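Quick one, tokens below. Sequence please?
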């Protein structure tokens, strides 16, 4: 709690009182000891105290008033209550202010609480008050000016917000010389942007209002334009009119920091502007220039940084380059019309893919020197192409630069024998997959085997729905081949059919085969008009409007997914209108203006509309096809503009008995794998398979009852055997049919072989 200096001071105070055989250690003893404490002595000197006179007065009063112990008295020197109160008061004040250490200066302030002591009387005699000490400790405001020592005078001037105590040149303190940074090689070269550079130079050469303002989205290179211009000035690659120019980047944070009193900020900024006027070729660069509006203004005041620089901007005395985003320009900067008219707006758009590749080629050597690797030309092209395709929330060239930078940084984390000296396309693919949170195989061309066998793999786990699987796989293959419309989702499908025939299972297996996430929304939760806001976010003014919507947040976080909207016919019609732009343009904007990209989403909607008509029995001797009747119901349920944007309306057929047997096999195989972990083999004979197929299928419910039948008739009896019965240590289970009922026979034999296959 006490600083080392203060502990030493208190120790010396006790030592001197004990050596003098004083009966008590008083506040005067403490103040006398503080005269040798660096912290307290410095404060006293700044406050104009004659420490020599004060010390002699304290010694005299101590010798006159403090009793001396006789030599034969064995008692030790004891601190007075006033002495103890001073230390307690100092500790309390320090804790209240959030600091951790008590210094001599804090104890000096606490001494003033003992108003009836000789120590305070002597301080008041020298015109030193508690306020003088507190002002210097808290705010650096000294009571005296020129009489103070040099070190304390510097601190005093700093506390008053002046620049004189810090630097003779305010530009050196509150701005960075970009020309010097370029000479030291700390600025990357500017590649391309010839049109923007020409426009910048043209504006800077104007007589009045010669202030360019770069406006563009984050990551397109606004700051790089100003820094690159400084590098070109140093290299002499600019017209003669700018050859002697010097660009200073204003550090607004340093300008505001430490300005505790009204007028401090204005004083600093005026000093910076005055220094810029003295340098006729100086150019001021303010990054994120919208932050100057309101910067440095006192509570309720109108004088901020923007109002201070308006006069010099309009007259042409100061040339200023600013940069900001479109959103901040419209929301903050443009509202101050008097400030906006003094700048000439220059739009900085995202570079094309070809320009971004040229930028990477120009910056390649910098990253190669830093990471000690080499980048192939194909890797640079892949960084741009893959970042454009998979990283949708950022812009070129920023996201492509980040990819090659991270690819080089990753090599430094590997063991030396595993590091690569050449970064190729495979490394870029790995980094893009990690940034975009998608499977690595989806970024590369190595997923051809998955696509080639996708149709077969889906038909092995979903039975009797070949038409639906064919439609899905063909759409995905077309998207992967690059022939599909890049502005639309990979596919938008409406699965229609009775319950329990595999509509949801197809989408679940598709996500599993592709290795991407399945996002499911039960549309029965969105039957009311107000529920639309749950998907895209509440409008401004409502509770939770800044949190975004469930659907848009999911897609922003997981842009590559299978999106399942289950039982879409139960949703409110307003939700259909939202889905129109998703299926048409592949985008959806939430209430905060953030755009969710659906271009890498497989959109699947399921419906039971028309299932009842399709399942009607035939009247007469000729088998009738009711698919047309079912399609008519779907047409009535969904608007024409909604149906026209769907890639395919896929009718799921009811399952026949052969398909039900295959469903039984699938469930039995899953149960076999579960029992295999318990060292139990399962054998289901053909009669038991047929019994399960007959009792686990309902024409109205499809194959959904199958899981319940297996659970009630097989899993539940086996649970007790696995926990407490014959199968605790493994064994064999035979399932058969006896007298029309399912019969289970267990044998307590540890199974040595693989699980029995289904006959």
């Amino acid at each position: 709690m006490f600083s080392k200096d203060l502990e030493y001071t208190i120790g010396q105070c006790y030592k001197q009182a004990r050596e003098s055989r004083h009966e008590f250690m008083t506040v005067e003893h403490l103040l006398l000891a503080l005269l040798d404490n660096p912290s307290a002595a410095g404060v006293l000197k700044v406050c104009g105290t004659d420490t020599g006179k004060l010390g002699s007065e304290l010694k005299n009063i101590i010798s006159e008033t403090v009793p001396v112990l006789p030599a034969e008295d064995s008692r030790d020197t004891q601190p007075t209550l006033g002495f103890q109160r001073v230390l307690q008061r100092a500790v309390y004040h320090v804790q209240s202010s959030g600091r951790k250490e008590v210094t001599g200066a804090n104890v000096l302030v606490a001494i003033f609480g003992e108003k009836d002591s000789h120590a305070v009387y002597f301080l008041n005699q020298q015109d030193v008050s508690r306020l003088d000490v507190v002002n210097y400790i808290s705010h650096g405001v000294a009571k005296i000016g020129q009489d103070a020592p040099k070190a304390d005078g510097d601190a005093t001037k700093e506390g008053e917000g002046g620049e004189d105590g810090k630097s003779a040149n305010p530009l050196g303190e509150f701005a960075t010389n970009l020309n010097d940074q370029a000479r030291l090689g700390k600025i990357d070269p500017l590649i391309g942007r010839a049109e923007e550079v020409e426009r910048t130079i043209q504006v800077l050469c104007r007589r009045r209002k010669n202030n360019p303002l770069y406006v563009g989205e984050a990551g397109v290179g606004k700051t790089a334009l100003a820094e690159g211009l400084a590098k070109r000035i140093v290299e002499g690659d600019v017209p003669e009119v700018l050859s002697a120019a010097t660009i200073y980047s204003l550090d607004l944070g340093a300008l505001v920091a430490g300005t505790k009193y009204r007028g401090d900020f204005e004083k600093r900024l005026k000093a910076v502007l005055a220094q810029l006027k003295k340098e006729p070729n100086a150019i001021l660069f303010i990054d994120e220039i919208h932050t100057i509006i309101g910067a440095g203004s006192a509570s309720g005041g109108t004088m901020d940084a923007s109002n201070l620089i308006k006069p010099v901007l309009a007259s042409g005395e100061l040339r200023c380059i600013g940069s900001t985003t479109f959103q901040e320009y419209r929301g903050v900067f443009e509202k101050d019309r008097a400030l906006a008219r003094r700048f000439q707006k220059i739009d900085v758009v995202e570079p094309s893919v070809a320009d971004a590749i040229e930028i990477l080629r120009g910056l390649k050597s910098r990253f190669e020197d830093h990471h000690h690797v080499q980048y192939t030309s194909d890797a640079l092209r892949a960084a741009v192409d893959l970042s454009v395709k998979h990283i949708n929330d950022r812009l070129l060239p920023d996201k492509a630069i980040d990819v090659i930078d991270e690819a080089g940084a990753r090599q430094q984390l590997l063991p030396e024998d595993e590091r690569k000296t050449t970064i190729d396309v495979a490394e870029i693919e790995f980094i893009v997959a990690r940034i975009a949170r998608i499977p690595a195989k989806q970024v590369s061309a190595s997923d051809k085997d998955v696509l080639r066998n996708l149709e077969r793999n889906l038909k092995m786990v979903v039975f009797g729905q070949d038409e639906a699987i064919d439609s899905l796989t063909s759409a995905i293959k077309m998207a992967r081949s690059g022939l599909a419309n890049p502005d639309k989702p990979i596919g938008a499908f409406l699965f229609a059919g009775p319950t329990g025939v595999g509509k949801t299972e197809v989408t679940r297996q598709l996500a599993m085969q592709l290795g991407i996430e399945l996002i499911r929304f039960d549309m029965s939760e969105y039957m009311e008009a107000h529920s639309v806001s749950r998907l895209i976010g509440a409008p401004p003014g409502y509770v939770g409007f800044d949190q975004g919507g469930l659907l848009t947040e999911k897609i922003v976080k997981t842009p590559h997914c299978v999106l399942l909207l289950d039982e879409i016919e139960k949703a409110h019609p307003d939700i259909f209108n939202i889905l129109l732009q998703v299926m048409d343009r592949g985008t959806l904007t939430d209430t905060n203006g953030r755009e969710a990209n659906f271009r890498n989403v497989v959109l699947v909607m399921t419906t039971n509309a028309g299932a009842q008509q399709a399942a009607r029995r035939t009247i007469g001797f000729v088998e009738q096809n009711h698919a047309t009747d079912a399609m008519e119901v779907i047409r009535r349920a969904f608007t024409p503009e909604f149906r026209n944007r769907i890639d395919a309306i896929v009718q799921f057929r009811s399952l026949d008995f052969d398909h039900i047997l295959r469903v039984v096999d699938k469930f039995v195989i899953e149960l076999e794998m579960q029992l295999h972990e318990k060292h139990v083999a399962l054998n289901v004979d053909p009669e038991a398979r047929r019994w399960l197929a007959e009792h686990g299928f309902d024409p109205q419910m499809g194959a959904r009852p199958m899981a319940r039948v297996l659970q009630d008739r097989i899993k539940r009896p086996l649970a007790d055997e696995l926990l407490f019965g014959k199968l605790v240590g493994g064994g064999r289970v035979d399932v058969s049919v006896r007298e029309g009922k399912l019969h289970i026979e267990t044998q307590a034999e540890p199974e040595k072989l693989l699980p029995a296959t289904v006959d």
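Residues 657-748 form a domain with the Helicase, Ruva Protein; domain 3 fold (CATH 1.10.8.60). The chain has five domains: 4-139, 171-295+303-347, 353-436, 445-616+625-651, 657-748.
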